């Protein structure tokens, strides 16, 4: 691993993205989101996605010049076309627009079709809760996971993000697979096994070996048939609300991961629902209750969504000793893109 100062990593990514054709503003935004994701401990969807994103832009699968276009409005609900533009920018703009609608209506929903990979979905959940909004967001994807009872990729892993604001926000960012492909890659590179079964090997047996699952592409749905069912409904609802493509039609594009997907950004303004103080007290009560629960036999503190990320985000990213640990091979790959 290479220890890279936060600001150095962000400025390096910015230069790489400008070199491939992003505007200065878009390069700054994407570099910040990728660097923050890596800082938060999600390198698989931070620095780990840079080379692939650059490749998609060069292939024409992502159009850096495309912008969101509103195609339908119904009160607190809007539908936008992403025109295969930059997924991070589209997602951030959709989040901001949903906030504005929530300011007016108490709830704002923006559904986006024909957008591209949003990278780490939690980025937009954290953006919302840090500004005082509750969030429910999700995306569909190309088929990358077997439906329960199938041996072939037939449904998306359709990540889901939920967040409730507070002094220490509750934020959940999860795919409908037990582990993402990014996590499999990270653990394989580290020479580690998964902590629990994460998919099937070539013999159809459950395994914790990341490489074996990557080879078969048979990742395990979270909760077995329940995660499979939830993924199917998230796909259907995203395509319905965005008037866009479900997973099996995204497959036909053959334009890389997440390209042509539908995303939904549902934001709630607590000021219209009991007020920020009620929301803060609610979250504090939940986290205090969880913190007081007796640990299991492992003895580790009880976990809840957002706890570790909140602690990490409270550190000063711009302090002289603030560094981001980057895999050596990935860092070399990024530096080569700058040449």
UniProtKB/TrEMBL annotation:
<dbReference type="GO" id="GO:0047559">
    <property type="term" value="F:3-dehydro-L-gulonate 2-dehydrogenase activity"/>
</dbReference>
<feature type="region of interest" description="Disordered">
    <location>
        <begin position="294"/>
        <end position="320"/>
    </location>
</feature>
<dbReference type="Pfam" id="PF02615">
    <property type="entry name" value="Ldh_2"/>
</dbReference>
<dbReference type="InterPro" id="IPR036111">
    <property type="entry name" value="Mal/L-sulfo/L-lacto_DH-like_sf"/>
</dbReference>
<keyword id="KW-0560">Oxidoreductase</keyword>
<dbReference type="InterPro" id="IPR043143">
    <property type="entry name" value="Mal/L-sulf/L-lact_DH-like_NADP"/>
</dbReference>
<dbReference type="InterPro" id="IPR043144">
    <property type="entry name" value="Mal/L-sulf/L-lact_DH-like_ah"/>
</dbReference>
<dbReference type="InterPro" id="IPR003767">
    <property type="entry name" value="Malate/L-lactate_DH-like"/>
</dbReference>
<feature type="compositionally biased region" description="Basic and acidic residues">
    <location>
        <begin position="308"/>
        <end position="320"/>
    </location>
</feature>
<protein>
    <submittedName>
        <fullName>3-dehydro-L-gulonate 2-dehydrogenase</fullName>
        <ecNumber>1.1.1.130</ecNumber>
    </submittedName>
</protein>
């Amino acid at each position: 691993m290479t220890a890279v100062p936060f600001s150095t990593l962000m400025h390096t990514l910015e230069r790489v993205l400008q070199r491939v054709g992003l505007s200065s503003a878009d390069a700054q935004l994407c570099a910040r989101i990728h660097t923050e994701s890596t800082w938060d401990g999600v390198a698989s969807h931070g620095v780990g996605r840079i080379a692939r994103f650059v490749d998609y832009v060069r292939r024409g699968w992502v159009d850096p010049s495309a912008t969101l276009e509103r195609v339908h409005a119904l009160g607190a609900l809007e539908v936008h076309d992403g025109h295969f533009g930059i997924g991070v920018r589209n997602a951030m703009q959709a989040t901001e627009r949903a906030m504005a609608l929530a300011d007016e209506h108490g709830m704002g929903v923006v559904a986006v079709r024909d957008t591209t990979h949003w990278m780490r979905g939690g980025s937009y959940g954290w953006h919302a809760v840090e500004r005082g909004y509750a969030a429910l967001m999700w995306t569909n994807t190309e088929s990358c996971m077997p439906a329960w009872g199938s041996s072939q990729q037939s449904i998306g892993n359709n990540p889901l993000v939920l967040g409730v604001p507070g002094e220490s926000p509750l934020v959940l960012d999860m795919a409908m697979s037990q582990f993402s492909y990014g996590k499999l890659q990270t653990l394989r590179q580290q020479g580690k096994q998964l902590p629990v079964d994460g998919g099937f090997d070539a013999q159809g047996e459950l395994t914790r070996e990341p490489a074996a699952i990557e080879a078969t592409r048979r990742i395990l749905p979270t909760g077995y048939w329940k995660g499979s069912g939830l993924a199917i409904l998230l796909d259907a609802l995203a395509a319905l609300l965005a008037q866009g493509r479900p997973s099996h039609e995204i497959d036909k594009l053959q334009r890389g991961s997440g390209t042509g997907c539908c995303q939904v950004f549902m934001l709630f303004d607590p000021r219209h629902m009991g007020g920020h103080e009620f929301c803060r007290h609610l979250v504090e009560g939940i986290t205090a209750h969880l913190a007081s629960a007796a640990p299991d036999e492992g003895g580790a503190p009880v976990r809840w969504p957002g706890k570790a990320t909140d602690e990490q985000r409270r550190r000063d990213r711009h302090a002289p000793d603030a560094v981001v640990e980057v895999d050596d091979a990935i860092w070399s790959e990024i530096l080569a893109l700058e040449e």
